[in-house]
Amino acid sequence: MKSLHRGSTEARWTLSLYGLLMTLPAFGVDRLRTPLASAGDVATARAASAVNEADSLGMEDIIVTAIPGNASSKFDSSLSVSTLSSEEILQSDPGSAADIVRNIPGFRAQASGGEGNANISARGLPMHGGSKYVLLQEDGLPVLQFGDIDFATADQWLRSDFNVDHIEAVRGGSASTATSNAPGGVINFISKDGAQAGGNLSITSGLDYDEMRYDFDYGSTLSDTTRFHIGGFYHSGEGPRATDYQSVSGGQIKGNITHNIEGGFIRLNFKWLDDRSPVYLPVPIVVNGRFAGNFPDFSANSGVLQTPQLLLDTAVNAQGQRVSTDIADGYHSTETSFGGELFKELGGGWRIEDKFRHSSKGGGFVGPYTQNVGTTPALVSTLGYAGGALTYATGPNAGQPFNGNAAEVALFNVTLPDLSNVINDLKLSWDLDTAGVGSASLHLGLYYSTQNIVEDWHWNTYLEQVQSRNAALLNLTSTSGQMVTANGLFAYGDGAFGNCCVRYYDLHYKTTAPYFAVTWKNDRWNLDGSVRYDVASASGTYGSATGTTIMNVGNTPTLTVPDLSVPIVNTYFPVSYTKRYLSYSFGTNYEVFPNLAVFARTSEGGRFNAERLLFGGGVVQSGPGIGSTSQNDAVNRVRQTEGGLKYRAGGLSVFATAFYVRTQETNADFTDLAEPYINDIFHAYGLELEAAYRIGDLSIRGGVTYTDPMVVSARDNPASVGRQPANLARWIYQITPSYSHGPFDAGFNLIGQSNSYVDNLNTAVEPGFVQVNLFAQYYITHAVQLSLRGNNIFNVIGLTEVEGPTVARSINGRTFEGSLRYSF
């Protein structure tokens, strides 16, 4: 395989935004698709659009996500809601869906894992892996029914490109009743549908890292009643961290076709995804109180444990078969989905809406994770071979003594044969006039989904040189001269985590949820109430394997593989239970003046737990009731109260919300040896502020959220009561100033958070940090745009996960990219 290097001589200019991800909104779309003749015409278009953008937060934007009744504007709804246009997404320089979420007020995203594996949570809610309480959607339906599946988080199957028109994000409130398993919020990526004719072609390249990306999209009409849109991307290279081999490859194609019928429309859509990108997990680092720094010979924000000296891993799967994995696959996300949407006015105020999607999802997850790190004598002693020695196992120094820093590395290797789901959301509505005192509507719906979780965990443990690039594997010999490892392979499974993680899941979940909503509004008041009744069931089997299966290869190995003559002890347990729970939400919005409104809402929702419940005693494994679990363990409850105001005048828009959240959570984290199981109750008070201001060519937008959280009850860890919950920073904030004049735009994007704790026991601090991104773009003509973006320009080490004083995960270091786009 050809090795690709950072700073190689391959093309370094671009044509799409690795982050322009979406079409330009408002003036951007008109400017690109209207035949403007010159830069002067662009300036004229900007000036005209400024009138429509005096409301700089888009308070009149119509929201369709998590609305209890009919679609409504931000200003009229009793929700805490944000929208992101394509221009705003571009300014945050996103490399993943989680990078986008970080720029939405009230949400925290630990966006350090690459294209997936991000932890996402809403204001005041705990964060213990994935997006447990927040649902990621595409066009109003969940990507996955559970956002916190181990090694299969929803963002791994979500790519943002020219297909996306805009994003709507609802925090708390009616998310409890608008969909299942999302009491904390909903983030909806909404696609273009061809209503705006035109397209884009683009190419994007890293300027100081190796990646090329090609994007396209096109939408138009086929007739007076039919339109379509199609788009996609392809990329290849190493990614923002140099791996010295091709670790990025693949892309997606999405499309839809819409046919207007009398009183509505019918839409069919499809998506095909086959993409690979590197997995970034905790690496060697130095964490000392509130300070984070580089470990010797290793860069925390640009180094990787991936190495061209370890590209193939051999293990044993759940069926006892030998399986080989290409480590370059990293996140391998595959999806083939098709669906449809119906909207039809039935007459007499009645209408019907239905959304359907069938998705076949799968792939894999393979990435190196630092378990232990230190000098050669210290690490050898930790491994139980005090006095032993390390030698190079690979590379030009193979066989020579090694005396530097070394790491015990667990290769998180998980096959994902089936994450498929089928989802349907049907709603019947009736609008009626309430005798001249406003209007009311009734909504009756039925939601149905199935979700498969089929995973095979087969891990190996290696010994590796601590080096940012091209690290060698290491062999260990005992004091007696016996070789303990071969080609760096130290053990099948994992030692540091108690050999926890040779597992197999074959699980099937079904959710049926009828829901009901009623709304009433007049010129000033908007009142709504909604309830949802979930019936959720789980079935299938899960199990684990034990036993050492490394082949005895002697002192001169050429390849070490699991020894299939040594049997693996497999233990399987059944899963079989059904739980029912009710959720509710009630809200009101009052327009005090045309530029000022106040709102309030109370709600309570549930989260049906999936596979994270199984290990750690959540499900009965033997005897009476085998396969069952308690209601409290199976369903976690979230209670929220919020209220605030919305104000707009003279280019200034303000959205302020005060909130209270009470959360009951059951969870497990096998990497947290201090607190692997959580059965806690949390509460939090807080204030969230989103604001934007425009004056002439200058604009600024941003948000800040303050949270005062506390553990109020802890079944398994009573010492955590009264402490601040893990990963919950008191302050999170986003600020984006920008300057636009004629065909030129420039600005910077600042994302920050205060200190937090690594666990509920507050044993160590996760230092706060501020990341700064830059952007600049110039319209050479109305159809050709040149862009430059810089990510983390001050090269800060921003920790999002701390596993100990020498193991943590950071955001990516400083990178620059350029883009060139042609719009037609």
Key structural traits:
8 helices, globular, Maltoporin, Chain A, disordered N terminus, 53% strand, mainly beta
Say which CATH homologous superfamily is assigned.
Answer: TonB-dependent receptor, beta-barrel domain
Give the integer mean of the pLDDT values.
87
Supply the number of structural domains: 1
- Low-confidence spans: 1-52, 548-567
Query: What is the terminal separation in angstroms?
Result: 38 Å
Quote the beta fraction: over 45%
- Overall geometric form: globular
Based on helices, strands and strand pairing, what is the structural class? mainly beta
CATH topology: Maltoporin, Chain A
Q: Can you give the helix content as a percent range?
A: under 10%
What is the CATH C-level name? Mainly Beta
Tally of alpha and pi helices: 8
> How many strands?
46
Based on CA atoms alone, the radius of gyration comes out at 27 Å
Structure report:
With 824 residues, the chain is mostly beta strands. It has a single domain, classed as Maltoporin, Chain A (Beta Barrel), CATH 2.40.170.20. 6% of the residues lie in helices and 53% in strands. The strands form 9 sheets. The chain has a 25-stranded antiparallel β-sheet that branches. A hairpin with a 4-residue loop joins strand 11 (210-221) and strand 12 (226-239). Residues 1-52 and 548-567 have low confidence and may be disordered.
